[in-house]
Amino acid sequence: SIDVSGHGITSALMAARLAGFLSGNRPDQNIALVQAGSGYGARPPAELARQLNRIVLREMRIETYFTLAYAEVDLQSERVALVQAGHPHPAVQRADGSGEFVGHGGYPIGLIEEADYRTIEVRLSSGDRLFLMSDGITEAPDAEGTELGAEGLAQIMRLCRSQRGPGFLDAMMAHVDAHAGGEFPDDVSGVLIEFRGPA
Predict the structure, then answer these.
(1) Could you say which of 32, 45, 79, 85 would form a disulfide bridge with 106 (CB–CB 3.0 to 4.6 Å)?
(2) What are phi and psi of 104, to 5 degrees?
(3) Coil vs helix vs strand at 197
(4) Cα–Cα dist 82/61, whole Å
(5) Upper half-sphere CA count for residue 162 (Cβ side, 13 Å)
(6) Dihedral angle at the C-alpha atoms of 145, 149, 152, 154, nearest 10 degrees?
(7) Contact 81, 119 (CB under 8 A)
(8) Tens of pLDDT along the chain (199 residues)?
(9) pTM of the model as a whole
(10) Using CA atoms, how far apart are residues 34 and 78, in angstroms rounded to an integer?
(11) How far apart are the C-alpha atoms of 195 and 9, rounded to whole Å?
(12) Which distant-in-sequence residues (6+ apart) come within 8 Å of 9 by Cβ?
């Protein structure tokens, strides 16, 4: 999940460049991948964030930064390794409906050259879900200007816990939309990963 902060053509150029660096069509040019024997493996999340930070500051040299939440999910080991770079804390909801927000915050990509990033590890069991979202969700204001916030999102996720897949996202976004009165001052995006046990 990536959220580019900037204006007009600069943001569009940044988004286009990022798409090229992370394209699935050209694994040899995808910086999220590393050569592993005859194929490719995943670059550790924190290392990817550091490399993107160097590219933005030293090669792109534009006055734009972005936030990032990037996760590597291993379906065999039930392990999720993720990095958070200025993005809202990813939400983990357990099969029993309980939840937590994970991550260390971290600096946005392209803001500070010496910024460091840490990989966070989470284990998902059968029935657990991981939700990565843009700040357009947690910062969605109601009519009085009160933001939804992490606790508001956690409450909505608990209300929707019996739903699965697209149904969960639809139900959750209906609640967020009701909170915001249909008006979102920032972009709204999210990625949902539901774990149904080892592949």
Answers:
(1) 85
(2) -120, 5
(3) coil
(4) 26
(5) 1
(6) 170
(7) yes
(8) 555 554 444 566 667 777 778 777 788 888 888 888 888 888 899 999 999 999 888 877 667 788 889 999 888 888 999 999 998 999 999 999 999 999 888 899 988 988 999 999 999 999 999 999 988 999 999 999 999 999 999 999 999 999 999 999 999 999 999 999 988 888 888 899 999 876 5
(9) 0.84
(10) 22
(11) 38
(12) none
Question: Six-digit token pair at 186?
Answer: 């920032």
Here the tokens at position 28 are: 């040899």
Tokens 């150029």 locate to 13
- Smallest Cα–Cα separation from 157: which of 70, 92, 76? 92
Q: Which H or E run includes 122?
A: strand 119-123
- For the stretch 131-162, what's the b/e string if a residue is b when 16 or more beta carbons lie within 10 angstroms of its beta carbon? bbbbbbbbbbbeeeeeebeeebbbebbeebbe
Helix (H) or strand (E) holding 81: strand 79-85
Burial (0-12, 13-18, 19+ Cβ within 10 Å), 166: exposed
